[in-house]
Amino acid sequence: MHEDVLPLVTIIVPSFNYARFIYQSLDSVLAQTWRNWECVVVDDGSTDDTRAVVMSYAERDPRIRYIHQENRGLSAARNKGIERSRGEFLQFLDADDLIEERKLEKQIEFLRKHSDVDIVYGGAMSFTSVESDGRSRIIGGEELTWLPSISGSERDALLALIRQPFPAHSALIRRSVIEDVGLFDEQLKACEDGHFWVRCAAIGKRFRQIKIEGSLAFYRIHPASACANPRLMRPAFKRWRREIAKLVKDADALKLNHRLAAEYEGYSGIEDITQGRMLSGAWQCLKAAAMIGDPRKSLKWLYCAFAAPLAPREQLESLAWTPISKTAIAILRHLLRLTTFKLRDGR
């Protein structure tokens, strides 16, 4: 089949002050074995050399387009790219991430053969890089083993995505998904991709994971990423959980989401306690105890809240991650250690 009659895929790349990374993202686009693509880069008000870097690529390859907007956030930049897209399929790619060279080819091939599937996604790897002279060099990575494996019913997809969504750029979606589900929520400053996937599952869109050599998504770990910013991620994650509660009707899905929201409060509290923010941490543990709806789990978080001023921090961390079936025993052991610690301290 001649290339100009193959389905077009639009790769949407939002960027804010990632000039030092975006050239690698665009190199991964140019390396794609599927040649019928367009790449829409949306510069979300960058103050670095993003424009110059992207334009140097656009001048060499007309399939790459540069769009500038005032800073409005990741979701708004993605939405602008969607609005300017022409493809039958859409690939999201953040400016600090990469995709393997056969990703488009293999995932488009799958969607063309499986008309009942709306969203296909593959494996992913995290990686790190070092920066010098305004450029970055990849130094290593590992597989993201926590990705959900979805191939069953719409309900299975919903429950899996509430537990743990997958990275946006590991997926390829049909344009019809956007037409039915709508754009990304611009009120969410993070977790917007997880919110989008849950919205898709909530209205019955069908997901499928396939792992094919050459089709990985690469997720960069670095200090400037949104995921490394707890002041951004914590409120966004909590809001994401609240928004899920408004979206879904399934009783088991609501119960699961509520439990995970409570546990996040508790683990955030433990993190605060270990970093010396005692009152904030104890308060969040108390909130977790009130929310969780399970007496044994409530006991664990209550104990963490009241033991926070006295207990060694590493012991609280250990208790927080103890399986619920062993919580009572863990608390007794913790009390024994705490008593021993205080007796020694008194001497």
Which regions have little confidence, pLDDT < 50, spanning 5+ residues? none
Largest sheet geometry:
7 strands, mixed
Kindly state the percentage of residues in helix.
40-55%
**Total strand segments:** 11
CATH architecture of the largest domain: Alpha-Beta Complex
Mean pLDDT: 87
Task: Tell me the name of the CATH homologous superfamily of the largest domain.
Answer: Spore Coat Polysaccharide Biosynthesis Protein SpsA, Chain A
How many domain modules?
A: 2
Provide the CATH topology of the largest domain: Spore Coat Polysaccharide Biosynthesis Protein SpsA, Chain A
Structural overview:
This protein is of the alpha/beta class. It folds into two domains: 3-226, Spore Coat Polysaccharide Biosynthesis Protein SpsA, Chain A (Alpha-Beta Complex), CATH 3.90.550; 250-346, no CATH class. The chain has 13 helices and eleven strands. It has helices at residues 19-30, 50-58, 74-83, 103-113, 154-163, 175-181, 192-202, 230-247, 251-274, 278-291, 295-307, 313-320, 327-346, and strands at residues 9-15, 37-44, 64-69, 89-92, 98-99, 119-121, 124-132, 135-143, 171-174, 207-209, 217-220. The strands form two sheets. The protein has a seven-stranded mixed β-sheet with strand order 3-2-1-4-9-6-10, sandwiched between helices. Strands 5-11-7-8 form a four-stranded mixed β-sheet. The longest helix has 24 residues, at 251-274. The radius of gyration is 23 Å and the shape is globular. It starts with 8 loop residues before the first strand and ends with a helix. The model has no long low-confidence stretch (mean pLDDT 87).
